[in-house]
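Q: I have two molecules that I believe assemble together. Could you output structure tokens for the complex as a whole instead of separate predictions?
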Amino acid sequence: MNTRKTEILVGLFIAAGLLALFMLAMKVSNLNVYNSDSGYEITANFDDISGLKIKSPVTMAGVRIGRVSDIQFDSETFEAVVKIRIESQYKTLPKDSSASIYTAGLLGEKYIGLEPGGDEENLQQNDKLKLTQSSLVLEKLISRFVDSFVDKSSDK
Amino acid sequence: MLDFIQQLGRSGFDFFQRLGRANILFAHILGGIPGMLVRIPLVIQQILSVGVLSLLIILVSGLFVGMVLGLQGYNTLVDFGAEESLGVMVALSLVRELGPVVSALLFAGRAGSALTAEIGLMKATEQLSAMEMMAIDPIRRVLTPRFLAGFISMPLLAAIFSAVGVLGGHFVGVGLLGVDEGAYWSQMQDSVDLYDDIYNGVIKSLVFGVVVTWIAVFEGYDAVPTSEGVSRATTRTVVHSSLAVLGLDFILTAIMF
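A: Yes, here they are, computed for all two components at once.
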């Protein structure tokens, strides 16, 4: 086999390999999520975020408009400080929007649902959401249910 | 009884001697890499025989592994009403495990055995000694380009395997079984992480490429220069590199994920 043909075949092979890597990066992985680093960040404090993770989706009306970018613990108020990055095309969210932590399906992933408020002003970079609702922890729910059951039966 | 213990000790020493020889050879091969930069045509020639000619088996098996994953995954997931997660399952199992491991096993069988047989035969027909007589270092002239070619080809082959497998899963899941096309891709993109999954998969296949070509080249160079010796060396290449790939895969997975 002559050199030219060899080199062309090897060139095609390397191109195909790089193309496959490129496809894995662009089409299979979440590279385009990393790229949406524009947008703005807001924070929200929750009493309990159990199950929420960095990169969990943030939705409004069921549409994903951002992601959780950071989770920290405030050792003075004993609350979780969640940073949310909203994509830049959603600029007109009311300032008094509220955030709650929901579960997708019965055992699914946790996500933050935002509900719009009525304020004329819009959320800006580093704004803080004042109205938040914590995530439902199944054990707490069950123990509350059991407690109420026990209370009722002891009343009799 | 004494003979048995003597035998045991001897085989132990033999093992360590081989291990030592393999490592010295590895250092020698690595030492030849800078010299290869001015003789790239040699490497290209080897990439052709190691990489390009392995392409067909990688493409076909990648496609079928992806299709089987799509089929099996669908049958399992549909019981939980979670067939939308098919893309995640196919992509994660391919990118993390099956892509690097299966392509390394195929590579050991297809290219590793050929390397060993070629080098072993060169040794048996005294081509390597002839080179030495001409003051050409056979390790740098013969072994280093083959090693480099394996090192370059392996991650590319693994990436092609994974990409074709994802398409095969798409063909079965979306095309034949009716999983939603958007869910297949978007759930996949939500769960597969560029750094955690894809980069680690590439690192895995790089490690496998080094190990498989190292074993193949060493077995060929170290073969007993008879036809029987070459055939045994070829068998050893396939067995040892398959075991090394599977063992290393466990260690790498434990470190990475």
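A: One point stands out. The first strand of chain A starts at residue 40 and ends at 46.
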